[in-house]
């Protein structure tokens, strides 16, 4: 097995890893990103079908307070547009009550979506990097501290890197990668018990020829405590020329088949919109708990947001050569795209101090 020398090796080609590599472009450092999956993007995933609205199945919305991700989008010249919620919503409180159309309260806040799907930011970041920077279908197995480097063993080849940055969900890093010497017990406990954003989520979407939910006395915004669909929104494109509905399905349907989930969702939509809801073009879904390179398994129950932004993530390990980064490691909008980008900036600033 061959060994390559690197200055910085980044584990994970999600938003944090790609943003960090993008920032490191301003240096002369040799950077490689190792990605276990066959695709890049992590928990950003968009499904594209010809002549249909793109369906985001992972990270989707950005709010004005999320300044770091907004600045990155601006630097990359990526366009945003406002999420349409409408003035009303379909509200279904429980099985014993009929769904009702309610007026949404006046709200000056706004959410943005990325034109042509959130995966646009991933593709654009990747296109700024030198060829061969990203190695997909390559999984890191172990990290071993040497005198001046960390020996990174993967399923394909080894690397000697001056610095290693893990951008994996902390629990996934703890589950899949061994270190020599072992990390402190206090850190291992935090890693193993850090909640992973999207871990229990099922995202689904339907594309349609017409936006029938824009008709009077209905809505494209759904909030339901009954049925498989819990939150659903208008997911049409920026120009309102391609139409879709998309949102969150109950995580309790994890063990159903894709076809079963589709039929259950359609039955619920049919109860709100009539038979026109059945005339969909395509159905897309992502059961995040079934994504082995993205979502860890847990031995015990972990509370939502548990250990997100824990102070131990701010420290460096393996003789100051290992950095722990990612959306769960930052306190600023933990689990969101903002946290991922903020984490990349923080590690970049630390690396600038460390590397002479």
Report on the architecture of this protein.
- With 356 residues, this protein is an alpha/beta fold.
- The chain is built from seven helices and 20 strands.
- Strands 1, 2, 9, 10, 11, 12, 13, 19 and 20 form a nine-stranded mixed β-sheet that branches. A seven-stranded mixed β-sheet has the order 7-6-15-16-17-14-18, covered by helices on one side. A two-stranded antiparallel ribbon has the order 3-4.
- It starts with a strand and ends with a helix.
- The model has no long low-confidence stretch (mean pLDDT 96).
CATH class of the largest domain: Alpha Beta
Q: Which runs of at least 5 residues are low in confidence (pLDDT < 50)?
A: none
CATH superfamily of the largest domain: FAD/NAD(P)-binding domain
C-alpha-based Rg, rounded:
22 Å
Shape: elongated
Q: Report the biggest beta sheet as strand number plus sense, adding barrel if it closes.
A: 9 strands, mixed
Total separate domains = 2
H/E series: EHEEEHEEEEHEEEEHEHEEEEHEEEH
What name does CATH use for the topology of the largest domain? FAD/NAD(P)-binding domain
Summed up, the helix count is 7
The amount of beta strand, in percent, is 25-35%
Instruction: Assign a percent range to the helix content.
Output: 10-25%
Family: Belongs to the flavin monoamine oxidase family.
Keywords: Membrane, Transmembrane, Transmembrane helix
Organism: Olleya sediminilitoris
Protein name: FAD-dependent oxidoreductase
How do you describe this structure in short?
This is FAD-dependent oxidoreductase. InterPro entries: Amino_oxidase (IPR002937), FAD/NAD-bd_sf (IPR036188), Flavin_MAO (IPR050703). It is built from 7 helices and 20 strands.
